[in-house]
Amino acid sequence: MKQFLSAADVPDINALIAKARAHKAKPFGSNHSGQQKMVINLFFNSSLRTRMSTEKAARQLGYDVITYDASGGWGIEFEDGTVMNGNTAEHVREAAGVLSQYCDILCVRSFPSLTDKDADYEDRIMKAFVKYASVPVVSMESATRHPLQSLTDCITIAEHRKAVPPRVVLTWAPHPRRLPQCVANSFAEWMLAWGEVDLTICNPEGFDLAPEFTKGAKVVHNQAEAFAGADFIYAKNWSSFEDYGAIGDFPGWQVDEAKMALTNNAYFMHCLPVRRNVVVSDGVIDSDRSLVLQQANNRTWAAQAVLGEMRG
Ligand SMILES: NCCC[C@H](NC(=O)CCC(=O)O)C(=O)O
Ligand SMILES: NC(=O)OP(=O)(O)O
């Protein structure tokens, strides 16, 4: 792969899952592949899991790694033709070109503005890095998607499903801040592209995801109806796509024990970080059906599989 931005970049999702599981079984089995090569991880936003798991994955493949917190660096300009006499000191044309001099794979995290829908949904920042970098680019969460998380979620579901296809529910959940739609968009995109789950998305009215991500999924606005008989409950908050970036005030959408009792003894999943007793009750996340730490663990193997496939 020359880029890893979405499910569309992956020729065979099952083959990538198999590679991740092979790395999980033998973490240093491909330790030679990154020898004398460099991965740069560029973060415009906070991270715990993505930062740690991508560094660990790169090192296990034999790569050296530099992680750079770009929020503390030179302000980068993304518009073409601007007179740069404001706060941005360096254009992405140079920034991406320069970083390409120092690494063999460039990984980038850049969240959406949640104010400029067009710029966000064109994924302008990630696309600019792809355009101006001369090395392969891996998304560590862009304005619209979080593909390393979604690959992880496929692996985790593959490891725990009993029936094929399992009934998987992506549910909107409350949150005190307005959050990106990326994790939910990407989860829907990957589940549908994978084709091995029966996906239902449930969210309050006004919080439907962008249609490009949900075509083929059942979308309902009643959480109890969606939860009935589910095998996996994947919780996530997202701000409104329709009324772009608006926050939703629906505290009754928290995932709790009473709602989980409607399911087929479902597993609980969340990408983390999660707000306890807002998104999910302590009782659910602390139960033996919670897969959140297994998901966090699988981030390493997902990243290892992806880094191992990147070619210039
Ligand atoms: N990387 C996974 C989730 C990242 C981000 N969550 C957050 O910003 C949560 C922040 C908070 O809880 O304040 C999101 O929803 O896309
Ligand atoms: N799930 C996830 O991407 O976590 P971080 O934001 O901490 O990297």
In short:
Pathway: Amino-acid biosynthesis; L-arginine biosynthesis. The chain has 312 residues and is α/β, with parallel strands linked by helices.
Report on this model:
Belongs to the aspartate/ornithine carbamoyltransferase superfamily. SOTCase family. Keywords: Amino-acid biosynthesis, Arginine biosynthesis, Transferase. The chain is 36% helix and 15% strand. α2 links the parallel β2 and β3 (64-69). With 312 residues, the chain is α/β, with parallel strands linked by helices. The chain has 2 domains: 3-146 and 299-309, 3-Layer(aba) Sandwich (Rossmann fold); 147-296, Rossmann fold (3-Layer(aba) Sandwich), CATH 3.40.50.1370. It contains 12 helices and 12 strands. It has a 5-stranded parallel β-sheet, with helices on both faces. The N and C termini lie close together (8 Å). Phosphoric acid mono(formamide)ester binds next to α2.
